[in-house]
Amino acid sequence: MIKTFIDKLLGKRNGDAAHGSGAGDTRKRFPVKTFGKRVEVPASVHRIDPSLVDRRAIEVVKTLQDKGFEAYIVGGAVRDLLLGLRPKDFDVATNATPEQVKAAFRRAFIIGRRFRIVHVVFGRGREHEVIEVTTFRAYLDNQAADRIKGNEKTSRQALAGMQHAVDASGRVLRDNVWGTQQEDAARRDFSINAMYYDPQSQIVVDYHHGIEDARKRTIRMIGDATARYREDPVRMVRAIRFAAKLHALGFTLGKKTAEPLAELRPLLADIPPSRMFDEMLKLLQTGHAIASVQQLRALGLSEGIYPLLDLIVARADTPLVRLALEDTDRRVAEGKSVAPAFLLACVLWEDVLAVWQRRQAAGEHPSPALSEAITEVFERRVGDVSGRGKLGADMREIWMLQPRFTRRSGKTPASMVTQPRFRAGLDFLRLRSRAGEPLAELADWWERFSLADEATRAELLESARRTAQQTGKADPERKPRRRRKPASATPQAGDMTDEQADPTPARAPHAQDAADGTAALDDASAPAPAKKRRRRRRKSAGGSEEGLANDSAAETGDAPAP
């Protein structure tokens, strides 16, 4: 009885572990205000259009409910449905554990360490769709969690087998303790993302006045914003992303949600680079890149979030980067794919050019100098992030194609159009032209060449050759071949040694001559040099050298030596 009384004073729960958690008495009972009160909102009030709900999400919910579990569509999809928008992604929350979810579907995969989730896959290849299923998570007291020194990368061994762990700053490293729907709603970031929709009964479950905030166009953090940011500093980036995404609909960050951002920004330095890189891409590649840059500047967060993101914000007003951000937003709005390699190639082209020019000034050949410049810039600006192999390879191909576009002769153009990244490289060239570089004619030529038949390609090559002759422009990467100047008079081969036959060193033709082809014409009209013959010494005995000398003389028409 005394223990029960003490537990009540400390706010601890009675009993052992909660559903599927093994957490024991490490949970803390929070007041109803923190958890919120369950409110079921009928279809007549929320007015969600069922036709906007993805059939695959409905199938996942129905399958889990048929097996006796609770299941709801959750998160941003419910928010978008309330606003009359068709969600791009659908997430499902359930009280089934990841193992139980995996067993309910033929193609389901458990992923993640920090948060274990299940991907239910529909379709195959590029047409496949993924419904993400999460288990209701418990709202835990981080003061009772296992504390780890260092971060997730340096403490992997210590984290093995832990269900709930935080680092020295309070950031959650493991959170795989399952709970109730009420607790799951309390641990979500924002009230507008903490609603649950049952497509079967068409009821919305709301614990934190999410529907009210959606109508007021307010983005509000659930609970104390400072404490929530400390638990997971990436929530600050998510707040900026939602503010940018929903800005066009009139949403703004609540005062208490926005105030701690600048003060707690240094906490982001402890986040693994790969996770920050992924969050940066979400900011820039979900159709609201320009709005995200504007939000970062408005909130005083243009620096100190992530080094590469800081660079993008700093260069967002330069012509090339601005066009790249605008094109990314346009492609997302049109339902087209976007690649991080293309956007980052635009952002870092300025650095690559600077290093490339510096290396060429030091005497390096243009092609290897460019390759080394790319390696240097990628390591310095991007570094060790997830998927760096493919990302780096794609960026390198786009950059290496740029100087090759000036080579419009021989077999080079035909081989270039077969390159996997030719279209990306050409789009990059076009963007450079739109940014002010004089490349419009070159980009148009390559566009026509890539789509033409063999006869038209031959005409385009001939046209490019004539243009090069008229303008005197040669391939900038190809140096003119050095030609030996012929002797002015026919030498007496029998009286000269090899060194005496041509005492003057060969002279390379003038660069302009090489470009116009006049050096070759001069060589053709000059008299041909006489054939030189090496005199051989005769041995006094043996006859072998004499026979060779006689054979040589017979070939040249001279009489043999006596």
UniProtKB/TrEMBL annotation:
Catalytic reactions of this protein: RNA(n) + ATP = RNA(n)-3'-adenine ribonucleotide + diphosphate
Keyword Repeat: no
Class of the enzyme per the UniProt entry, highest EC level: transferase
Enzyme Commission code: 2.7.7.19
Record keywords, A-Z: ATP-binding, mRNA processing, Nucleotide-binding, RNA-binding, Transcription, Transferase
Sequence ranges of Basic residues compositional bias: 530-540
Domain spans labelled Poly A polymerase head: 71-220
Pfam families noted in UniProt: PolyA_pol, PolyA_pol_arg_C, PolyA_pol_RNAbd
InterPro entries from the UniProt entry: NT_sf, PolA_pol_head_dom, PolA_pol_I, PolyA_pol_arg_C_dom, PolyA_RNA-bd, tRNA_ntf/polyA_polymerase_I
Residue span(s) of domain tRNA nucleotidyltransferase/poly(A) polymerase RNA and SrmB- binding: 250-310
Family (UniProt): Belongs to the tRNA nucleotidyltransferase/poly(A) polymerase family.
Role, per record: Adds poly(A) tail to the 3' end of many RNAs, which usually targets these RNAs for decay. Plays a significant role in the global control of gene expression, through influencing the rate of transcript degradation, and in the general RNA quality control.
HAMAP family: PolyA_pol
Protein name: Poly(A) polymerase I
Source organism (scientific name): Lampropedia cohaerens
